[in-house]
Amino acid sequence: MRTALPKRRLYIIGILIALGIGAGAASLVRDYVHMLTHGVTTEGRMTGRYREVTSTGRGHAVSLHPWFSYRTADGSIITATVSDAMDLADIRAGRTMPLRYDPADPSVLRLAEALEAGPGALPWILGGLALIVGGLSVFGLVTGRSLRLPF
């Protein structure tokens, strides 16, 4: 019969999980900064189609990501969907909006106004979670005991 994992292994696993969560947060920020600094601004025209993304968990949420047709700097015409969600009422065929695309992969497309708003709360939440999990794991690994919570 196997016994439970020793505390030391659990703390190491906690540190690895924290590193993974931190890497995810860093990746979100890196992608945002890359698009902000290297993205090319263009005017895009909505096609009227949209990609519907359904997420389940606590409740049911649907995000709508409109398709745009736009011209790249080299004159190519691309049709792609943005990674930013919009309300159905805002998705109208023929509507034009400022966009930013990645010159290395023009199918990677963002709404210019969404980029101006910043990377959002998710990188901060993931970064904070990584610090908490990592900090508690390092504390346990160094001291050899778990942190006692007052509640």
Q: Please, could you describe this protein's structure?
A:
It is a single chain. The chain is α+β, with helices and mostly antiparallel strands and 151 residues long. The protein has one domain. The protein contains three helices and five strands. It has helices at residues 7-38, 112-116, 122-143, and strands at residues 40-57, 59-71, 77-81, 96-102, 105-111. The protein has a five-stranded antiparallel β-sheet with strand order 3-2-1-4-5. β1 (40-57) and β2 (59-71) form a beta hairpin. The chain is elongated, with a radius of gyration of 22 Å.
Entry summary:
Helix content is 39%, strand content 33%. The protein contains 3 helices and 5 strands. A 5-stranded antiparallel beta sheet has the order 3-2-1-4-5.
